[in-house]
Amino acid sequence: MLPGIGIFGCGELVRILVANLRSKGFRVEAIWSHCLETAQQMARELDIKLATDVIDRVLLESSIQLIVIACPPHLHEQIATKACGIGKHVLCDCPPALSYDQMLAMKKAAFNYPSLITIFFNTLRFLPAFVKMKSLIADGYIGQINVINCNVFGSSLQGLDNYSVSCDELMGGGLLSTIGTHVIDIITFVTELRAKRVTGIVKSFNQLKDNVFGLRRITADDFVTFQMEMQNSLTVANVTLNSHYCGKFSHEILICGSKGYLVCRSGDLYAQLNSSGKEELLFADSDDPISDNCPYGKGLSRMLSALKNAFQFSPETECMPNGFNDGDGHPNNGSGVDVHSNDEILHRWAKEAVGLAANFEDGLYVQAVIEAIKYSSKNREWVRIKYDMN
Fold first, then answer.
1. Do the beta carbons of residue 216 and residue 132 sit within 8 Å?
2. d(CA 145, CA 301)
């Protein structure tokens, strides 16, 4: 049985999420916004029965077992830690949090309840092109990785229609937080390498826009470039995020090795070996559920399909394994079950189905890199990455 879902947030992402969740068979039971009127309006438009501006009203709703966090990042820690504490699964939007300390608290909350599904919207991980790229790199297809080059260009990356938290760097706005989060994560996912130190430039060129009124300036960055020296000291990653490009949206991740290169362009995978005379197409992504060329939208449907599979058990998995319960009613072996006091089984889940997803520990690493890049930009120096793995 699929769990009921409570959604935090009322942005455009929520509309896309609700449509995709319902197409997979999930029930959206409640929606939250800091403004009750906004929540009620969204609930009427999307046919959601409960609308509220009280966080605990959604968290404590008995029909809800999965919390989707798509609200401003300053609320992520509060909602995620509470949800984990009462035994509810969490699917959280990016950026992970406003600070490293907030993300650390989220990671510790998830660590205390290891059977729960606690993942981020890092949808690139679910694209077949990146899964295949990861496999080829692990098999030594391009040899030793030397250079990683990532370019994301587009004229509407920020999507600012009026002044909101997305205009404010301190509230989690800007390309580094919204797009850079995904890029940093996917580099580690496909290469299994993490950054050792970084240097970067984070700039906000367009601080005034015609559709943003008043005396407030936009502090969210609209151009970012940074380099990462990876932990093996043999690989360097160069990333550029540019919202000043007026052409077609472009998303390219290039991995160059000693034997050749692999490149993913908007969900399609290409390769060329040193012994070959031309580039060849290894995988073409024909599935485009959001009807655009954005790989993030393409990965969303696949991620939610995997989430659906996590809550669907075959007849062979109906029995609970030995040692299933930790003594406090919480499963601890990667599979889960919700039970009443009368032992009636309500929901089962298997975390393996969403094994590709970025968990809260991955989010902690990404948050550490983001903060190091911002520090580097302000102080104009290389910064070593420090993050707590315990």
1. no
2. 30
Token readout for 9 is 């947030």
**Residue 188 CB neighbour total at 10 angstroms:** 19
Is residue 314 in a domain? yes
Domain assignment present for residue 389? The answer is no
Assess contact for 119 and 357: CB atoms under 8 A: yes
Tokens standing for residue 174: 């800007």
Whether the link from the prior residue into 95 is cis, omega within 30° of 0, is yes
Based on the domain organization, do 230 and 325 belong to the same domain? no
Ordered alpha helix ranges (H), the chain: 12-23, 36-46, 55-59, 76-85, 100-112, 128-138, 175, 181-191, 295-310, 360-379
Which two structure tokens, joined as six digits, stand for 343? 């032992």
Rounded CA separation 59/55 (Å):
7
Q: What is the pLDDT of residues 197-224, one digit of tens each?
A: 999 999 988 766 655 555 667 778 889 9
Burial of 269 (0-12, 13-18, 19+ CB in 10 A): buried
> CA-to-CA distance for 96 and 83, rounded, in angstroms?
15
Question: pLDDT tens, 140-174?
Answer: 999 999 999 999 998 754 555 565 666 777 667 78
Report the SS3 class of residue 12. helix
Residues 23 and 114 in one domain: yes
Q: Which amino acid is at 111?
A: F
